[in-house]
């Protein structure tokens, strides 16, 4: 169960709600007054740079090896789609920006600056807004950090993944441990307290002892934020095929569970507080951008394959939509040039779909979901009313995995690692609650029809 919980949150390609059963329906909620989230003029922005110099052996993210120089056309189209998204959402303030990929540190710093200028021109972007850039820790990536800082970036997320050169080779990374250490040191010099490091466990040939030693070494040089991810074997990747053929072996689920628990203890001992399933911070250095996902806030997605969740007020919309941009960069470019955006799919979120996202994403947080936060999205019934009478929820509470009290709903220390095993139960209870409201509403409508003699009576003009 741990493997899915520790899926990397790389931009807003977030699998929630119906991913645990069936896909969210495209129909708009029929529950009166509950078809849209609380009104907000704010949103965060995710910008996807789809290109890499090479594909890592484990990676199935939306990334491509460019056959020619794409810098100019990407600059043009990222600016245009950003402008379109801001006008469509009518947000007046962007709270954070995250440049992910792919390898966004391959983009020119002037491209990053131009996107930020577009945001500032069409919506507010304060000087304090968190602006994160994912960085591949190669000599080329490290040499451009200062230029990115001048372009407006104020936080770096560095894909170290491992400090073992043999491990990096297996993963197909194009950096070595010395490159990683040098990049982290340079980033810390430029942005002290605002550097995050990604590290991966469950790699081929890794033991609990070697993992603990490696993590301890990393923590002696890294900054105030660490993201911890378990290697996931994805179909279609080179690493998946190597393991299937018996050329490599990965630790068992029981071993990776021990690795996760030992990492949590080591990080805590070194002063890093866990605030989400995969994320740890000290000195208050939490990722403000990712918090917007976990708090089910609005976010705009720009670039090939980016995801977004926002209300399209510019089209007269009142419901939040789940939007996905066209995956393939060349096709996305043509669409943006023709119509200003490359939106491939848009699904109006039902009331149930929205609550599922609040539940699934919120429970990733150590603090969980407060009653006040839940009320923003569902003022009709609180979490106690929906969940507390369930025998399954009572069992989860008695076994010490789930906490439902006056603060709200959250996982215990042990429960956070087992979140995926609890979500199907909680989602079914949520679905039963919304179905009950719909049936209650339908019965009320039927009674109204009967009082009107079987038909609606129009009042005279």
Automatic annotation (TrEMBL):
Compartment(s) of residence: Mitochondrion
A GO molecular-function annotation: 4 iron, 4 sulfur cluster binding
SUPFAM superfamilies, per database record: Radical SAM enzymes
Domain Radical SAM core: 37-276
Top-level taxon of origin: Eukaryota
GO cellular component: mitochondrion
Keywords: 4Fe-4S, Chaperone, Heme, Iron, Iron-sulfur, Metal-binding, Mitochondrion, S-adenosyl-L-methionine, Transit peptide
UniProt GO BP: porphyrin-containing compound biosynthetic process
Database matches in InterPro entries: Aldolase_TIM (IPR013785), Coproporphyrinogen-III_oxidase (IPR034505), Elp3/MiaA/NifB-like_rSAM (IPR006638), HemN_C (IPR010723), HemW-like (IPR004559), rSAM (IPR007197), rSAM_sf (IPR058240)
Any single Pfam family the record assigns to this protein: Radical_SAM
The family this protein is said to belong to: Belongs to the anaerobic coproporphyrinogen-III oxidase family. HemW subfamily.
UniProt cross-references to PANTHER family, sorted A to Z: COPROPORPHYRINIGEN III OXIDASE (PTHR13932), RADICAL S-ADENOSYL METHIONINE DOMAIN-CONTAINING PROTEIN 1, MITOCHONDRIAL (PTHR13932:SF5)
Stated role: May be a heme chaperone, appears to bind heme. Homologous bacterial proteins do not have oxygen-independent coproporphyrinogen-III oxidase activity. Binds 1 [4Fe-4S] cluster. The cluster is coordinated with 3 cysteines and an exchangeable S-adenosyl-L-methionine.
Name recorded for this polypeptide: Radical S-adenosyl methionine domain-containing protein
Taxonomic source organism: Salmo trutta (Brown trout)
């Amino acid at each position: 169960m741990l493997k899915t919980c520790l899926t990397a949150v790389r931009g807003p390609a977030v699998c929630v709600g119906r991913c645990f059963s069936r896909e969210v329906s495209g129909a708009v909620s029929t529950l009166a007054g509950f078809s849209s989230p609380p009104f907000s003029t704010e949103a965060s922005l995710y910008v996807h740079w789809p290109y890499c110099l090479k594909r890592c052996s484990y990676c199935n993210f939306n990334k491509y090896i460019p056959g020619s120089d794409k810098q100019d056309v990407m600059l043009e189209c990222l600016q245009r789609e950003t402008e379109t998204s801001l006008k469509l959402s009518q947000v007046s303030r962007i709270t954070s920006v995250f440049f992910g990929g792919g390898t966004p540190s391959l983009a020119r710093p002037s491209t990053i600056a131009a996107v930020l200028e577009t945001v500032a021109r069409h919506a507010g972007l304060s000087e304090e807004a968190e602006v994160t850039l994912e960085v591949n820790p190669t000599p080329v990536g490290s040499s451009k950090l200062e230029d990115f800082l001048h372009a407006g970036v104020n936080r770096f997320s560095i894909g170290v993944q491992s400090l073992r050169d043999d491990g990096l080779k297996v993963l197909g990374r194009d950096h070595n441990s010395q490159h990683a250490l040098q990049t982290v040191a340079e980033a810390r010099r430029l942005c002290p307290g605002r550097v995050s490091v990604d590290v991966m466990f469950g790699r081929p040939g890794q033991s609990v002892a070697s993992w603990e030693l490696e993590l301890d070494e990393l923590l002696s040089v890294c900054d105030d934020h660490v993201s911890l991810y378990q290697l996931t074997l994805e179909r279609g990747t080179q690493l998946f095929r190597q393991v299937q053929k018996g050329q490599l072996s990965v630790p068992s689920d029981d071993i990776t569970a021990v690795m996760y628990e030992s990492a949590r203890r080591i990080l805590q001992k070194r002063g890093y507080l866990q605030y989400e399933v995969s994320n740890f911070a000290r000195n208050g250095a939490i990722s403000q951008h990712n918090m917007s996902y976990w708090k089910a806030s609005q976010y705009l997605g720009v670039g090939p394959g980016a995801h977004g969740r926002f209300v399209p007020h510019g089209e007269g919309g009142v419901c939040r939509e789940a939007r996905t941009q066209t995956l393939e960069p060349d096709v996305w470019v043509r669409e943006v040039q023709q119509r200003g955006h490359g939106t491939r799919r848009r699904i109006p979120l039902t009331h149930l779909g929205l609550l599922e996202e609040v539940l699934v994403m919120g429970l990733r947080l150590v603090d969980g979901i407060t009653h006040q936060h839940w009320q923003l999205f569902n003022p009709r019934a609180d979490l106690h009313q929906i969940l507390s009478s369930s025998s399954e929820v009572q069992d989860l509470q008695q076994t010490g995995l789930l906490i439902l009290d006056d603060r709200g709903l959250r996982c215990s220390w042990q429960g956070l690692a087992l979140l995926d095993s609890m979500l199907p139960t909680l989602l079914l209870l949520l679905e039963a609650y919304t179905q009950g409201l719909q049936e209650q509403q339908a019965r009320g409508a039927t009674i109204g029809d009967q009082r009107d003699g079987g038909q609606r009576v129009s009042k005279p003009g």
